[in-house]
Amino acid sequence: MKGHRWLWILVISLFVLAGVARAEEAQRYFKSNVSVGYHFIGHDDEMTKVGEYESLSSGAHADVNFDARLGEFFFGAHGFYYDESEKEWSGYLDFARIVRSEYYYDSFIHRTQHDELFKDEDKTSSGMTATNPFGWIWDAGTGQYELEGAQNAMHTDLDSGKDYQIYRTEHNWVTKVQIPFFPYIIPELRIRKETRHGWKQHTFMAGKCASCHVIGTSLRVDEETTDVTVGGTLKYGIVTASYFHTESHFDNEARKNFYQFDGVAKGNSPTFRSRILYDNSYARYAETPDVDKDTDTFKVRVDLPYHSTLYGSYVSSRVENQYTDNDYDMDTYFARLTTLLMHNRLTLTARLRYYDIDNEDVDVRMDDYNIVNIPQDTAVQGPGYGGIPVDYWSYERKSALSREVTEAGIDFAYRLARGYTLRGGYTYKRVERDNKYFKDYYDSTLEDERYLDDDTTTYHIFKLALSARPFRTLTGRVSYKYYHADSPFQYWNAMCYDGLYNINGPGGADPSIDPSLPTPTPYYLIFRSTYRNKEASNVPEDHHNVKLSATWSPLSWLSVNGNFQYTYEDNDDADNGWENNSYQAGISLWMMPIQNFYVTLGYDYQRNEYEAWYCIDLFAG
Amino acid sequence: MKGCRWRKLPFLWMVLFLVVSLGACTSMKEAKKQAENAKVPVIEGAKYVGSEACADCHEDVVKDFGRTIHGRIAGFEVKPSMEAEGCEACHGPASKHIEEEDPAYILNPAKLEPAQASAICSRCHTDGETMDWRGSEHALNDVSCVKCHAVHGDKDKVAYRDKLGYRHKNVKDAFLREPEPELCFTCHKDVMAKTNYPNHHPVKEGKMVCSECHNPHGSMVQPLLRTDERKNELCLHCHARYQGPFTFEHTPVVEDCTICHNPHGTVADNLLKQNEPFLCLQCHGIHFHAGLRPDTEEVLSKPHEAGKPTTVVPHDSSMQMVMMTRCTQCHSAIHGSDLPSLSVPGGGSRLTK
Q1: pLDDT for A359-417, tens place per residue?
Q2: I want to staple A508 with a disulfide (CB 3.0 to 4.6 A). Which of A5, A285, A524, A575 is the partner?
Q3: Is A156 in the B-facing interface, judged by CB distances under 8 Å?
Q4: Among residues A355, A529, A362, which one has the least CA distance to residue A452?
Q5: For B85, which DSSP code?
Q6: ipTM
Q7: Phi and psi, residue B330, nearest 5°
Q8: A:342-371 residues touching chain B, CB 8 A cutoff
Q9: Domain boundaries of chain B, sorted by first residue
Q10: Chain B residues within 8 A of A496 when measuring between CB atoms
């Protein structure tokens, strides 16, 4: 690094000297600007949401700018300091327009909070007696003592006093070269580096019975993303073309996280018997993989005669998870043709986009983990001992990411009269997902999330807008957008209500169950997604959106804006009857009674009403 | 994606463009000029006289112009087809304007139709992020270049907060008339309101600007997103920890980030459209403890008493527990994971670890 630093200093010095040498006969200037201030931050101890991005301490801040020219050598810099963590600086060099380089850096802290963990009432174990106050129970099946009931009954924040915050920095450096004797090609190099360091809260289940007895612990964040892009642009006549290759590397340098999933700390009753894969072992959790992404981007623009422009792009990328070697390829094609007709009154655009994502299938092998057999929870098959080899649950995972998407559309803008423009468009979009078999279990009798419909969604999107300027002081715009989706995105194994009274899956009776409840009792039900065979969704099948906005500026120092928006969405295709009504209305006023003194007032009202049927599954364990 | 017919034509689009381009370059010399002058009015009878003549009257403009990017442009940067450099490159030939001293004989982008004004800029700005300008949302909505850019020079930024009280992110301002996000909020008031919601990207704190996610000059991905691929790739540019691809997926995550998140701002935490668990319950049945009463102590301490239900009673208060628990407390790997969940049923795909 030391050698590189000297090389840079040498190169920059040469540029400066060259510029100064020519400056004698050329213009030179220096312009600077310094601003300093002091900010006061008040604190109180009220229970409010953490100010995620606001600085928390009072102090002096400064902002410095300068621009200079020495002959053909232009350079400048900017620096801003708010506090130790919040600062930014940038600089540029321009040597006779042959070499143009810019650098930018900024940093800030993102403060997060301790999530309030669920607070349950303390519980008394059914195994607790005067002689066994801790609820230890000898399990003949596993041949060990187990602890029932009382363990982890409360939430546990293991790092309750820790400050959770992530310090984020970003460096951006762009350099272009344009050679005077062949200016048509402009090579370019871009380097971006982003880092995130700090701690954040992480919650997870300590054991199979701990779904509401989670542990809150600290997770180290130590991430670095580096993007290096090389390529260039060709500009010749009516053709502009560019090609760039980007290599991105996301590196997670935080240590791996392990937790001892203690086989003792689990329920004893058959229902709560451990079925966890990591019984009595240290297991990894909260793992963020390193990711590599390579992207090739090729774009062409041709300015054709008759006021027409053709633009197209092709992007090919490959993303690879470095921990699992799982990857996906993505190819994206886009073309747009725009033309002016009717003496420039009508702008017409046609576009076509297609992309294809191909994610690898994954062989999920459960027998790689700690336990060998899965205890069964049915009274019929025994009180929860042995029986099913864990490999029974192995399967081949088909990716829901894999898909083909085709989109075609046409847009127009028609100038009705000076100040009045009518805007409209139609888009057809087709999403063909390749997740027909989301899971393909090796044991054909296991149908958990196995049989899904082949999934294709077709969209028809319409939009229309009118913008108007009836007077010099008044502008307005009204727009309407509607789309209909055939078979919108939804979850197939969402709800079970239809099967509540007709469950024919494995289950067992509990003698203490209320006899008025339907049978078989759900208590011992092996409740898998195969029984949740009703669909639910929170995306619309039909979407309507109306927007109105108007700005009135009667005086040069006064402006008033009002805006209103209403959205209605519903989904009758899914079984949960999803519906959304959203209103948003706002008014803002801007005044500048004297120079450099501004007053801005605003009020915004938003109301969202979502309606959806919930399904309460009658089972526990 | 086997059998995809599109795969057999990976360079169809590029070949098409190259054919058109080559044809245009070689056989339509006159068309070149016509294309580059598209829509720009022509001042009949006027001739080019050079920028020095402009300085005689417009000294205030010319004075600092040389310090700006436009004032520094070198001759070799200008397209051969451009007939002038300096002021007249954009304002057209000035001889008649000088003779008559009449503004009607000079091109003033601020007074032209939006498409005409933008066409002047598009003579040079056909590369980079302006490549897809023609036919883009802003172009179709009559937002011309000069509505956002002050072509003669940058504005000095002394105050570190703008008129809205938002701190500037002092990135390259590219001749913007006002700093971002104030400039964008001139029209997009509804978005401005959302940036003030309890949960938001750090726009008002000056750590992000609109143009980091949006390319106002055009994009194939609506709404003007700064990506050449699908929408999610934009989010993953910064949130790379969720890139995957993961062994255990959450299908809406790979479908579209905005199914659950509103990036401009929300009342709920983590930019979620609704608070947990309500958001999750729109697609998932309530499970596990949902059916348990909150007074589990009483229930569990008296097992096997005749006539006493031990659990799973659809009771009014049974909803309390699930409604007060965030799903992601247990399903903490909600964006995907390579580590199977704790228990086997479900094939390890429950995203708990």
Answers
A1: 988 888 877 766 666 655 443 333 344 456 777 778 888 888 999 999 999 999 999 98
A2: A524
A3: no
A4: A529
A5: -
A6: 0.87
A7: -100, -45
A8: 344, 347, 349, 351, 353-360, 362, 364, 366, 369
A9: 56-212
A10: 285
